[in-house]
Amino acid sequence: MASVTALVMLFLACAGGLVCGNQTYIVYMNPAHRPAVHPSHADWYAAHLQSLDIDPGRHLLYTYSDALHGFAASLLPHHLDLLRRSPAVVQLHPDPVLTLHTTRSPQFLGLAPDASSSATVPRPIQAVEAASRDVFIAVLDTGVWPEVPSFSAAAGLPEVPSRWRGACEAGVDFSPSLCNRKLVGARSFSRGFRAAAAVAGDGTVRGKPNEYDSPRDRDGHGTHTASTAAGSAVANASLLGYATGTARGMAIAARVAAYKVCWASGCFGSDILAGIDTAISDGADILSLSLGGGSTPYFRDTIAIGAFAAAERGIFVSCSAGNSGPGPATLANGAPWIATVGAGTLDRDFPATARLGNGARYTGVSLYSGKGMGKKLVPAVYGGGSSNASKLCLAGTLDPARVRGKLVLCDRGVSARVEKGAVVKAAGGAGMILANTAANGEELVADSHLLPAVAVGKKEGDLIRQYVTTNPRPRGALSFGGTVLGVRPSPVVAAFSSRGPNPVSPQILKPDFIGPGVNILAGWSGSIGPTGLLKDGRRTQFNIMSGTSMSCPHISGVAALLKGAHPNWSPAAIKSALMTTSYVLDNTNSPLRDAAGGSYATPFAYGAGHVDPQRALSPGLVYDITADDYIAFLCSLNYTIPHIQAITKRPNVTTCSRRFSDPGNLNYPSFSVVFAKKWRVVKYRRELTNVGSASSTYEAKVSGPGGVAVTVKPAKLMFKHVNQKLKYSVTFASKERGRSAGTAFGWITWSNKQHKVRSPVAYTWKM
């Protein structure tokens, strides 16, 4: 195991000969301008910089070949004009900094037997798991802790297929021998991070000093996501006694490779592109990225650009939607060639109770595993400091004289939940009640706090606030209930899960679907405690985390199963199967609810619904999309030709000879209809491919708001052979002529006795 002394300093000032004050840029090149004298793109990029009097040995960070045509370089201000004037340069932009979107889920998804029942795994799933051993999942994250048992090669897992070209790179406290038939690759990409962490022009330093200069995961996030996607089955796994059972990934036979692209100060676009570029070259079938930034046009979105290259090569790309919910239009990674994943809850909970001096008892959640508070009530306090900031329990705001030995009530928000607990403990508090505000509603996320702590929803929080602030001698105590299964209702859309409408292209409904993303048990780094705080000295092989970061690798693993079952399916076909077979009723047979307020959720929160892997194996019909279709979509966004060339790597795209009349005409498995002031009738076309029985007939059924007339032509599709394609059109007419704003939702379903191929429809009225 590594020790703290094995950590290295990656932010050496002006490291590697970099000039202080440089800024990293990603430069997109037009390969049509490459002189024949240069044997490779990399040679040309270096020579081109040299021709502009820019020393490539000093400034060039990465050259890309598969993800895009271009390079990343650390440049001075006067270099920018030189590059922009070059006809070989398509575009350039600063290196963006993105962020991470931070046992029972296999049973919840129907991929493993439930220990509480006599049911067995359906045979189709068992057969698919065997087939997925030839599928490679590349996880771009914070690296991997290879000693976690989730990455041990299970008995019977055959040799790694020869088509795999990946490698395990040696580095600080990381030997290539740590890889095996399960963990087949581990690489790290830090040049963008190094360049940004060098001393800036104002004398500040970006980033934290201690990082493993290797694929080893110091953070834990990457180990968690990789083991969620494809970890081997591990019996008796738990987080300090919570969620005890068999921990396993979604595709236990699939191979996994870790690409470390995220560091202490974030995930730099140049490093992410280098990871994608290498993963494509290594032979990955699935890319899993639990990270992202804000919404930006696709030609400036490094993940969208890298993902386009992957999708064109038949690689499925799964990305987290983000944790900026529940506000509208907050999602990231919304390009149509990406599977955008939101988060929902499991049917598992970790109940804990706050008992007050007035006899009231309020139920919340907690993963606290230490010594409890006992039955005796202790004094309670809210706002244990001299300012209102103390109600948030921010660092430095609590007065130990007012807090010591008391149960402290803290408002959720601004700082991390576990950090609030650490602040209370440092001030001498005996325990903490973490109460939601309106921003989080009734959503409950359990944490492994350093002191006795319970998280409660807004309604309970308001009642506790009232008691503590009005009672002259408020008192309370906490108790903990372990792990409870069979929670109803579930799933529920997580309040933090980012929402649509799609801020970049509103005619593409996002997210695509939701998966388990709340209180997920998976592997963890051995260098940090379960809270992620440096002061947390506990160590565990597994941790419970929440976020769309956790739901994303669920989809990555399920996609690997579908890839194993249907190796000839395109990424679009796999995503279509997952979307059109998703469900929208919870385990009480009621519509999915939103944790933010308890009301019914909408497709802007859950997309097509919650994924159902078993049904996705046999969807009947799929909506397929080619790279040329995506180009026609980009043309319909009125992007310039250089912008389209930057995304697609196609210098021969010199005109938009084919473009959709509306971006919504992309053959997507969902619909987002935008009624504008002058456009009260919208017509879209779609094409379905038969992947079911050779002779199949489907009939269309429409449901939705009374204010929209929907006409599907033809209303019946008769397929005569497998892989046959049939087209249909659908016309949406708003009957509410005076309506100028608002949203509504509906469904279009193609059905026969065996299948229901359902697409959500979102309606938006704009001035």
Helix vs. strand class: alpha/beta
Low-confidence stretches: 1-19, 199-209
Please give the order of strands in the largest beta sheet: 8-12-7-15-17-18-29
Q: How far is it from the N-terminal to the C-terminal residue, by CA?
A: 61 Å
**Number of helical runs?**
18
Tally of strands:
41
Detailed description of the structure:
- 21% of the residues lie in helices and 27% in strands.
- By secondary structure, the chain is of the alpha/beta class.
- It has a seven-stranded parallel sheet with strand order 8-12-7-15-17-18-29, with helices on both faces.
- The chain is globular, with a radius of gyration of 26 Å.
- The relative contact order is 0.12.
Summarize the structure.
The protein is an alpha/beta fold and 767 residues long.
Highlighted features:
seven-stranded mixed beta sheet, disordered N terminus, 767 residues, alpha/beta, 27% strand, 21% helix, globular, single chain, 41 strands, seven-stranded parallel beta sheet
What is this structure's SSE topology?
Layout: E1 8-9, E2 23-29, H1 41-51, H2 56-59, E3 60-64, E4 70-75, H3 77-84, E5 89-94, E6 97-100, H4 105-108, H5 123-131, E7 136-141, E8 183-188, H6 191-197, E9 210-211, H7 221-230, E10 234-239, E11 242-247, E12 255-260, E13 262-263, E14 266-268, H8 269-282, E15 286-289, E16 291-292, H9 302-312, E17 316-320, E18 339-344, E19 348-349, E20 351-356, E21 361-365, E22 378-382, H10 400-403, E23 407-411, H11 417-426, E24 431-435, E25 453-456, H12 458-470, E26 475-480, E27 484-485, E28 492-493, E29 513-516, E30 520-523, E31 542-545, H13 548-565, H14 571-580, E32 593-594, H15 603-606, H16 613-616, E33 621-622, H17 627-636, H18 641-648, E34 671-675, E35 681-690, E36 696-703, E37 708-713, E38 716-719, E39 725-734, E40 742-751, E41 756-765
Parallel strand pairs: 7-12, 7-15, 8-12, 15-17, 17-18, 18-29, 22-23, 23-24, 24-25, 28-32, 34-41
Antiparallel strand pairs: 1-9, 2-4, 2-5, 3-4, 6-14, 6-16, 10-11, 13-14, 19-27, 20-21, 20-26, 22-26, 30-31, 33-35, 35-39, 36-38, 36-40, 37-39, 40-41
Helix pairs in contact: 5-13, 7-13, 8-9
